[in-house]
Amino acid sequence: MEESIYRIAHRCKEISSEVQINVLVGNGLLRYQYEGSLQQFEKELLKLCKALQIKYPEVSISLRNHISQYNNHPTFHQGAIEAILDCIINLYGCRESYRKIFISHASADAPIINAFIKEILMLGCGLIPDDIFCTLDHTAIRTGDDFREQIVENMKSCDFILCFISENYQKSEICQNEMGAAWTMDNKRVLPFKFPNLLFSEIGFLNVVKQAANITDKTKLDELYRELTVYYDIPQDWINYNQRTTDFINQVNENYN
To answer: Which of 50, 54, 89, 83 has the alpha carbon at shortest distance from 66?
Structure first.
């Protein structure tokens, strides 16, 4: 299981609190005396640099520079490193409350959509119901609310939009409008998945840009898992996820064979 950025940063912060730098002056020269495990501190910081380099390469480079120059001016670089750690911890400490995935689907495909949410997103990725907006959840839109406004509001506030394209989806005007709106929004990761009984040549412009994936394609589901866990800083557990993916694919195949 891969550790999250938050956990590594938090451990670095704990070790940092044990590192004391004493400045000694003699013969006009400054010398530094250390208390605490600098070797362990550097080891954990380098691990954090590696974890940051994909999503936050600039932060990773900055942190690595402070590590490499630490001995030249330890008090300055210690302060800079702790400032970086504080920013990471503060960012990820509240990140869970900002998770949001929008599910665009046809209501007639409820069994497959529910299985995807349960097996892939919740049991596989570790997301919770509040992280997912799906109109199959009757609590998602309250009685008396304009469902169109609720859909647009949740689409604007989400990070990812997953479109589940089926024959039912193509026949639904609402679904087509949702997909069209999704592609016009800035800073949204739109990921279309097609159902097994639909050919790639039957999904219109998506086939041209080659962005659609088969819902039973294990490789594509693995890519989704990596992307979600990295983006939301969720520890990866491939043994558990692989089992959940197998269960989901089996459920889909049972419905289409």
So the answer is: 83
